[in-house]
């Protein structure tokens, strides 16, 4: 098991050489005692690794950890230091961007990691990839009641995973809602016991050219449509939401969930970062520091905790 390192004083960061931090260095992350003083935001921004605060909240940190979480987070970073670095650099950069621009930046960062050693290692370890065949049932149920459009993710036997067929069906339905101002409300939920298990892992890496994959995301990412719906979008999560599931849901003006639901961002274990809009949607609900903690810890967060953070507006 990894041993907890001794926290640095905030002043120590100003003397660190960035070349001594980050992937391939002795310091893939830095743990800082925030009770010992304030951090220099410019010093943090220059470091190519996550800066973890231990103690009172300091906004210059990338995230804050409790002592009980240090080994968990540190272990995840040691396994995927490139993905951890790109994640925090992205979040430092996009916090002042418009949501639309931040989505493009997220896709570019995701594309960068798709060519990275960590993602390629995950692909090698998990075997060959292939796109799913034609769906046995309609991936998305669409029902209109007067001025409300009801959309239901309809793959309960596959935990409502977001594969190409589901993504395309969502984009088509959301395009209709964006264009038709007579639709006053779009209600999104899932069939079965899980809202969504996130992206289809069997399709990860099937587009070999990362630049082409970025181009496809800019055209076919549901997040862009969800963002445009603004106050018209309501999401109810009938169960757990993983990865893209919670990333998409967090765009809604109102988000509710079952009390039995839980949420997780597991992308770091693939050598990636949240790529379905979550660095925008989740961060703008709960702040970038909690988003980074979710992504680095890959912990499951229960509905009650998510509600207290503001990720959910109500429980049912």
Automatic annotation (TrEMBL):
Q: Which InterPro entries match?
A: ClpP/crotonase-like_dom_sf, Enoyl-CoA_hydra/iso
Q: CDD domains of this UniProt entry? A: crotonase-like
Q: What is this protein called?
A: Enoyl-CoA hydratase/isomerase family protein
Q: Name one Pfam family in it.
A: ECH_1
Q: From the record, what ranges are coiled-coil?
A: none
């Amino acid at each position: 098991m990894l041993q907890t390192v001794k926290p640095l004083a905030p002043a120590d960061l100003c003397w660190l050489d960035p070349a001594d931090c980050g992937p391939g260095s002795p310091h893939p992350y830095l743990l800082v005692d925030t009770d010992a003083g304030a951090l220099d935001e410019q010093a943090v921004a220059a470091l190519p690794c996550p800066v973890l605060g231990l103690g009172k909240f300091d906004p210059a940190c990338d995230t804050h950890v409790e002592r009980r979480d240090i080994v968990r987070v540190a272990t995840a970073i040691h396994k995927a230091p490139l993905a951890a670095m790109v994640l925090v650099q992205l979040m430092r950069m996009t916090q002042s961007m418009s949501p639309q621009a931040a989505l493009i930046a997220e896709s570019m960062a995701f594309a960068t990691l798709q060519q990275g050693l960590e993602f390629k290692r995950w692909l090698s370890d998990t075997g060959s990839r292939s796109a799913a065949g034609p769906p046995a049932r309609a991936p998305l149920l669409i029902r209109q009641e007067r001025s409300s459009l009801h959309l239901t993710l309809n793959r309960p036997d596959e935990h409502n995973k977001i594969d190409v067929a589901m993504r395309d069906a969502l984009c088509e339905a959301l395009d209709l809602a964006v264009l038709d101002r007579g639709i006053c409300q779009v209600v999104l939920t899932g069939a079965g016991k899980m809202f969504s298990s996130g992206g289809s892992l069997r399709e990860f890496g099937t587009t070999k050219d990362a630049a082409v994959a970025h181009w496809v995301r800019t055209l076919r990412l549901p997040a862009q449509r969800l963002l445009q719906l603004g106050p018209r979008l309501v999401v109810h999560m009938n169960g757990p939401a993983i990865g893209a599931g919670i990333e998409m849901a967090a765009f809604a003006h109102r988000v509710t969930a079952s009390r039995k639901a839980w949420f997780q961002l597991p992308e770091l274990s693939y050598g990636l970062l949240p790529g379905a809009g979550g660095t925008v949607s989740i961060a703008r609900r709960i702040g970038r520091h909690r988003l980074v903690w979710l992504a680095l810890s890959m912990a499951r967060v229960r509905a009650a905790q998510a509600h207290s953070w503001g990720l959910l507006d109500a429980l049912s």
